[in-house]
């Protein structure tokens, strides 16, 4: 089983990279991609915990935004971690998350919801990428909401009056950066409408022209109809369909391996990278 989209507490998951690898081994996965938001900081620890039978695909879920303000997440896989241009964009995006969080907190405070930046930062592990799930955890700790799910449903979703967008390059720019770093680009959960506005079907054309290698078709947040539509788009553009859990530990209901990618599909993706970067023991 191959799961190409997971998170650790280096971003907004709840498992350490090592715990994630141990759970992947126990689940029976054969390949797992670590794709924390806008960072590669968990790669070294995850590699240390590898055991024979489980391969590690190194990656990152990179924040993007279309020109009309729609949030997009792009999975960059198998890229060179030393690529300067991509590293600089990841760093800029992480830094911008701090100012964005302060603005969201101000809006919550103005509405009478008491929460501070210090309380949010207390939810991060050392060096983790800041995100709304950490604000959700702070709200849970203060008993404003019962869990992350309620926090996002009531306060932190993309259409909320408290939502603030953040600096992100366009999907096309990120795809080109990933390809320039020798990796492959797969758009994550592109039609997950419960998260907010989604990209139009027409927008896939420009992304494919920029070098998009695949679409995450099978995902918990896609309906059967959305999966069928995405499968048609994959076939039309002759790119790769993937399936992934988007696992976050205790932070979401998603379970490791609940959606997977076929070995054949992964081999096509791996062949598109400029080097063999799968890590195995």
Overview of the molecule:
The protein is α/β, with parallel strands linked by helices. The chain folds into two domains: 2-91 and 166-272, Alpha-Beta Barrel (TIM Barrel); 97-156, Orthogonal Bundle (DNA polymerase, domain 1), CATH 1.10.150. Helix content is 39%, strand content 15%. It is built from ten helices and seven strands. It has helices at residues 17-27, 43-48, 84-110, 117-121, 132-141, 148-156, 171-180, 204-210, 224-237, 263-272; strands at 2-6, 31-34, 55-65, 71-77, 184-188, 214-218, 240-243. A seven-stranded mixed β-sheet has the order 1-2-3-4-5-6-7, sandwiched between helices. β6 (214-218), α9 and β7 form a beta-alpha-beta unit.
Q: Give the N-to-C terminal Cα separation.
A: 17 Å
Helix content: 25-40%
Structurally, the number of domains stands at: 2
What value does the average pLDDT take?
95
Strand order of the largest sheet: 1-2-3-4-5-6-7
- Quantity of strands, as a count: 7
CATH architecture assignment name of the largest domain: Alpha-Beta Barrel
Low confidence ranges: none
What's the story with the biggest beta sheet?
A: 7 strands, mixed
Task: Summarize this structure as a short list of keywords or feature phrases.
TIM Barrel, 10 helices, about 280 residues, about 15% strand, single chain, alpha/beta, DNA polymerase, domain 1, 7-stranded mixed sheet
């Amino acid at each position: 089983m191959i799961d190409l989209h997971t998170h650790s507490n280096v971003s907004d998951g709840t498992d350490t990279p090592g715990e994630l690898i141990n759970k992947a081994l126990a689940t029976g996965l054969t390949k797992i991609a670590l794709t924390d938001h806008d960072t590669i900081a968990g790669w070294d620890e995850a590699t240390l915990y590898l055991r024979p039978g489980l391969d590690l695909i190194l990656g990152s879920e990179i924040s993007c935004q279309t020109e009309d303000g729609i949030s997009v997440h792009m999975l960059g896989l198998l890229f060179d971690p030393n690529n300067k241009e991509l590293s600089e964009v990841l760093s800029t995006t992480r830094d911008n998350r701090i100012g964005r969080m302060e603005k969201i907190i101000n809006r919550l405070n103005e509405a009478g919801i008491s929460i501070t930046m210090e309380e949010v930062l207390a939810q991060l592990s050392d060096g983790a990428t800041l995100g709304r799930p950490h604000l959700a955890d702070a709200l849970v700790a203060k008993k404003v909401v019962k869990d992350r799910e309620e926090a996002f449903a009531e306060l932190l979703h993309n259409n909320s009056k408290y939502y603030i967008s953040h600096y992100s390059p366009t999907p096309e720019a990120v795809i080109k950066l990933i390809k320039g770093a020798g990796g492959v680009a797969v758009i994550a959960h592109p039609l997950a409408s419960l998260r907010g506005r989604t990209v139009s079907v027409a927008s896939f054309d420009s992304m494919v022209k920029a070098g998009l290698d695949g679409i995450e078709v099978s995902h918990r947040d896609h309906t059967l109809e959305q999966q069928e539509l995405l499968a048609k788009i994959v076939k039309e553009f002759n790119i790769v369909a993937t399936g992934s859990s988007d696992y976050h530990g205790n932070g979401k209901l998603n379970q490791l391996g609940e959606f997977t990618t076929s070995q054949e599909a992964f081999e096509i993706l791996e062949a598109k990278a400029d080097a063999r970067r799968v890590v195995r023991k």
